[in-house]
Task: structure prediction
Amino acid sequence: MIRNTTLTVPTRGKGLYPFTRNAEDWLSKQNLTGGLLTAFLQHTSCSLVIQENADPDVTLDLRDFFERLVPEKAAGFRHTAEGPDDMTSHIRSTLTHTSLSIPVISGEMALGTWQGLYVFEHRSRPHQRRVVLQLMGE
Amino acid sequence: MIRNTTLTVPTRGKGLYPFTRNAEDWLSKQNLTGGLLTAFLQHTSCSLVIQENADPDVTLDLRDFFERLVPEKAAGFRHTAEGPDDMTSHIRSTLTHTSLSIPVISGEMALGTWQGLYVFEHRSRPHQRRVVLQLMGE
Amino acid sequence: MIRNTTLTVPTRGKGLYPFTRNAEDWLSKQNLTGGLLTAFLQHTSCSLVIQENADPDVTLDLRDFFERLVPEKAAGFRHTAEGPDDMTSHIRSTLTHTSLSIPVISGEMALGTWQGLYVFEHRSRPHQRRVVLQLMGE
Result:
């Protein structure tokens, strides 16, 4: 059986936005016991990551590290028409993930104790980000 | 149902080579309405990325950024027998992706408007790169 | 059909630890001819990569590159309570992979000749790392 939905995750500037609970809520209504959950982000200037969900400082340190790794003040980008945070966003999304693949066992995502799902927003302005969830299983 | 094929993507030096249309062509012949498309690259010195397909400058800026992030002139690589662009290629491929997972809905990849599929070649010489496509669905 | 197992990969400090053979051994007992193998790591301070399995120097150069790319001596992390190698581990895992998706064809992973599966340990102390393997197929 295959089920699909699309979550909309609102973002308000650079940083990590959790959607684990949204995915769990949808998953719990599908009545499938096992299978594979794919989360697919339909954008190229933000990304998906699985990271620690316990200490919010982790997400702030992650955001700041990528600010330094892919600095907006770097010289020489060609693609600048959409602002200084656009080409850096494409690079940061390439360095992280557009899709996540998570086994579902006994009706639940097989996440480790400290793992949470996040949209990593790389742009400064607010956006509505679309995450396609697909569950394939039995 | 499960279908597999292997695309060959010719590359002519460092940069991004699109294969969205090749994947769409194959997909359209499978007569499956829904499922998961996995693209898997059988190499460790190039990679797969999903990135903006509108402005070609994005792919050039991406290529150049990785040239700076993982410089060939970096000191101290042990693995140098295959040339100065080999160990850097392994690192660049590790920082990007060997597989992509894309939901298929109503017979089409659920890509966002600006998303395209690319082989990111990290080596200088021409290569023939093999991308296994697998469609699992109904 | 869906099959799951969990591998435990012991690590002894930073570096890459192969588990290709463990995955092959389990796969060979499932009697499925085709499908998708998902490897999912239940941790946020180590990661999964597919890399060259021929020259062990590649894994050492990879380890050392990430040591320089995400240095422990970088200023200004907030998340420091678990030691200097913890926030860097979260970043290094974000820059690499938590899951791998590998087509299975004719009962075997469709890996390229030189591709191997690795747990990339980012912490200094020994750990027991859990990798969930899921095979979905026919």
About this structure: The interface with chain C takes residues 2, 4, 36, 38, 40-44, 69-70, 74, 76-79, 81, 87, 90-91, 93-95, 97-99, 101, 130, 132, 134, 136 of chain B (CB under 8 Å). Strands of chain B lie at 2-12, 15-18, 35-41, 46-52, 99-105, 108-109, 115-121, 126-137.
